[in-house]
Design a protein that fits this description.
CATH architecture of the largest domain: Up-down Bundle
CATH superfamily of the largest domain: MFS general substrate transporter like domains
Number of helices: 20
CATH class of the largest domain: Mainly Alpha
Strand order of the largest sheet: 1-2
CATH topology of the largest domain: Growth Hormone, Chain: A
Largest sheet: 2 strands, antiparallel
Organism: Lupinus luteus (European yellow lupine)
Number of strands: 2
Protein name: Major facilitator superfamily (MFS) profile domain-containing protein
Strand content: under 5%
Helix content: over 70%
Order of helices and strands: HHHHHHHEEHHHHHHHHHHHHH
GO molecular function: transmembrane transporter activity
Shape: globular
Subcellular location: Membrane
Keywords: Membrane, Transmembrane, Transmembrane helix, Transport
Number of domains: 2
């Protein structure tokens, strides 16, 4: 049975989302090996993510422009090809500078993909099921993180034909990304471009480049003035800071004494729980939005962000700092993943789709990612700085015995845990507080967007009616122009009668 075009597009778009997150998760999963190979400390490792995020954030306006003017499926494919090329460069790099440049270039490709994917999902859903759709998107994306992280951690300590395992993992992710990008380009469809028509009629008319830039800037200004957008971006900056900081979680578990296999398994538990939690949160958001349309989604987000504070304290500060506590670590990671992953699918992404017109959805998602990622990208360096300069993280001295290395690792694990909790607890508390302002602004902004959509729809109806009238008038003029004056008088009467009937029909 042939798969519907819409279903095939959603499958391919989710595949692209999987590979996007897999690509992002490869480097954090092999921080320890990369640090040893490049002789880099935690601050340097964190700065690699910072470089990528800064470039990624600066390229989101380009992503919005391309998604507005071009087939979004093709934009996603282009992003996949770009990040795959940069991933290959990381695998071939032999110095810290080369890795830093490659990761920065990697941000260009990643920036093009996310807004296009999110706007495609938003356009394909309505207020009743949008949260669930974004929950599925989060689930599949987290599956990408699981694959990338688990695979990289497992292959990191191996060597294949003299090539370190961490380099092999980058090669494999790059190859799969090229395959997925090719499939998206060939088979995915953008509903704004039926049958992959690059000159679809419902797209904006051809204008000069600078005219398009001015329009994009004007749209960005109008979106940035929306109060609810400002609030969600503000909470997103604080709320995404802890998730970015968690890139050090595999390194913390390994320093605690867990093997590569156990570390991969524990992180897999967290990612799977977060995926299921996102799906649950999205569904609950849809349910609460029908029963409490002005506050349901906001309440859910505050519960989720509030629970992160005590759960992170138990995980990082309460559990024993030794590898014999794998079961308690796994249990807390599961509960934490289930509870702290609701914000994006249940609240942020659905609300964004409701407070702006449909034509501005790509812009609002691109701007959100730009503002959030550029600031949250400081989380990994902040964790590294706190661990080294505040909580006493120190490198293992050369010539240390095995027992001394183990002792130093345990001390460093405790230092890293404290810095991680600092980067999680404080931002999550601020995130929960900032959500409170949405109770006032969200209902007002949602109704304003609905009125704008209604007015725009009426204007389009008027324009289409006017176009139909013009066509009938033009056909009438052509009919009269065919008259050569040689027919009988009764034909003149017929022509006059025809004109009267035509214009009487236009008036009805």
């Amino acid at each position: 049975m042939k798969m519907k075009a819409e279903t095939l597009t959603l499958v391919l778009v989710n595949l692209a989302g999987i590979m996007e997150r897999a690509d992002e998760s490869v480097l954090p999963a092999v921080y320890k090996e990369v640090g040893a190979a490049l002789h880099t400390d935690p601050t340097g490792l964190g700065s690699l993510t910072l470089f990528r995020s800064i470039v990624q954030s600066s390229c989101y306006p380009l992503a919005a422009y391309l998604a507005l003017r071009h087939n979004r499926a093709h934009v996603i494919a282009l992003g996949a090809f770009l990040w795959a090329a940069a991933t290959f460069l990381v695998a071939f790099s032999s110095t810290f500078f080369q890795v830093a440049v490659s990761r920065a270039l990697n941000g260009v490709g990643l920036a093009l993909v996310a807004p296009a994917i999110q706007s495609l999902v938003a356009d394909s859903t309505d207020d009743r099921n949008r949260g669930m759709a974004f929950g599925w998107l989060q689930l599949t994306s987290n599956f990408g993180s699981l694959i990338g992280g688990l695979f990289s951690v497992m292959i990191a300590p191996t060597t294949v034909f003299g090539v370190p395992g961490w380099r092999i993992s980058f090669h494999i992710v790059g190859i799969i990304s090229v395959i997925v990008g090719t499939l998206v380009y060939l088979f995915a469809n953008d509903p704004h471009f039926p049958n992959n028509d690059t000159n679809a009629n419902n797209q904006v008319p051809n204008r000069t480049f600078w005219s398009e830039v001015k329009n994009l800037v004007q749209e960005a200004k109008s979106v940035s003035k929306i109060s609810s957008f400002q609030i969600i971006v503000a909470q997103g900056v604080t709320g995404s800071f802890p998730w970015s900081a968690l890139s050090f979680a595999p390194m913390w578990l390994e320093l605690t004494g867990f093997s590569h296999g156990k570390t991969a398994f524990l992180m897999a538990l967290f990612v799977v729980a977060g995926s299921i939690g996102g799906l649950f949160g999205g569904k609950m958001g849809d349910i609460l939005s029908t029963r409490l349309p002005n506050s349901g989604r906001i309440i859910l987000a505050q519960i989720s962000s509030g629970l992160a504070i005590p759960l992170a304290a138990i995980l990082l500060l309460g559990l024993p700092n030794n590898p014999s506590s794998a079961i308690p670590h796994g249990l807390v990671l599961i509960i934490m993943g289930l509870c702290i992953s609701w914000n994006a699918p249940a609240t942020n992404n659905p609300i964004f789709a409701e407070i702006v017109p449909e034509r501005s959805r790509t812009s609002v998602y691109a701007m959100d990612r730009s503002f959030e990622s550029v600031l949250s990208s400081f989380a990994p360096p902040a964790v590294g700085i706190l661990a080294q300069h505040v909580y006493g993280f120190k490198p293992i001295p050369e010539g240390s015995s095995e027992s001394q290395e183990i002792l130093t690792d345990r001390e460093n694990a405790a230092s890293l845990a404290k810095s991680l909790y600092t980067a999680i607890g404080i931002p999550m508390a601020l995130c929960c507080l900032i959500y409170s302002f949405l109770y006032r602004t969200y209902p007002r902004d949602r109704e304003r967007a609905r009125m704008e959509a209604l007015i725009e729809s009426e204007m389009q109806h008027m324009e289409s009616d006017g176009l139909a009238m013009d066509r009938e008038i033009q056909s009438e003029e052509l009919f009269i122009g065919d008259y050569d004056g040689d027919v009988a008088d009764d034909d003149d009467e017929n022509i006059l009668l025809y004109r009267q009937l035509t214009f009487s029909n236009l008036g009805t």
